[in-house]
Amino acid sequence: MGILLTFVLSITSCQSNNTIPDTQNTPNTLVATEPSSLTVSAAISLKDALEEIKPLYQKEKPQVEITYNFGSSGSLWQQIEQGAPVDLFISAANKQIDDLESKQKLLTDSRKILVTNQLVLITNKNQNNVNKFEDLTKAEITKIVLGEPKSVPAGKYGEEVLKYYKILDQVKSKIIYGKDVRQILTYVETENVNAGLVYITDAKTSEKVRIAMTAPQDSHSKIVYPIAILKDSKNPDIAKTFEDFLLSNTSKTIFEKYGFGT
């Protein structure tokens, strides 16, 4: 009898250990949302505003890690052309986005206008001999800094303004070209040049420069910042949520704080 009882208990124990638990009606409390990454290439003039917007978005989407890549629109476009893994691209002009769209590299219907901007003539705050664009022709003004027109949209807009005032040929020998608007700003801050042309949003970030004049809107092409999702994005759905957030009223308030038009 003792041997039989031991045998029965042994079988019962084995059955118990090999029982497959019923998980169909058991809530899965161990599954967590997978972290996702997003690479955003953006014109460097957007840097301060985007850095402030980032934690607000991540408060709503804590699982999303955003990596910014700032630079001139032309250099960022070139990186994308060469295969850089980018999810979202924000340019300071239509040209670069137009090119990518013509090559069918953008996600359909993802292109939007994010913000607008203004172009201003700036000098160091210690200088007062430049108060309008025509003053750039003065003999004592020897160095003017613009963005490289082929890669920096602000440089293209700047040349359009100088043509509008019919002074481009007169000042061409004085022009020094910068790789992006932040470098232009630095040249003016350090008094390495007499004047420069940047966006009003850049000028507002510095206490070392003075806005001499704002370029009339009809003196250059309209300054717009198009945004679009790349077709090769590995996280297009997440990129769409961030694009929507950038176009939201929350982000609009921050962009306006830095001087952008929305």
What does this protein structure show overall?
37% of the residues lie in helices and 21% in strands. The protein has helices at 2-17, 47-60, 73-81, 94-102, 153-164, 168-171, 181-189, 200-203, 236-246, 249-257; strands spanning 36-43, 64-71, 88-90, 112-116, 119-124, 144-147, 175-178, 195-199, 209-214, 224-229. The longest helix has 16 residues, at 2-17.
Based on CA inertia axes, which overall geometry fits? elongated
How many strand units? 10
Number of domains: 2
Strand content: 15-25%
Brief digest:
This protein is α/β, with parallel strands linked by helices and 262 residues long. The protein folds into two domains: 36-116 and 223-257, Periplasmic binding protein-like II (D-Maltodextrin-Binding Protein, domain 2, 3-Layer(aba) Sandwich), CATH 3.40.190; 119-219, D-Maltodextrin-Binding Protein, domain 2, CATH 3.40.190.10. It has helices at 2-17, 47-60, 73-81, 94-102, 153-164, 168-171, 181-189, 200-203, 236-246, 249-257; strands at residues 36-43, 64-71, 88-90, 112-116, 119-124, 144-147, 175-178, 195-199, 209-214, 224-229.
Walk me through the topology.
Layout: H1 2-17, E1 36-43, H2 47-60, E2 64-71, H3 73-81, E3 88-90, H4 94-102, E4 112-116, E5 119-124, E6 144-147, H5 153-164, H6 168-171, E7 175-178, H7 181-189, E8 195-199, H8 200-203, E9 209-214, E10 224-229, H9 236-246, H10 249-257
Distinctive features:
D-Maltodextrin-Binding Protein, domain 2, 2 domains, 5-stranded mixed β-sheet, elongated, alpha/beta, 10 helices, disordered N terminus, about 260 residues, about 20% strand
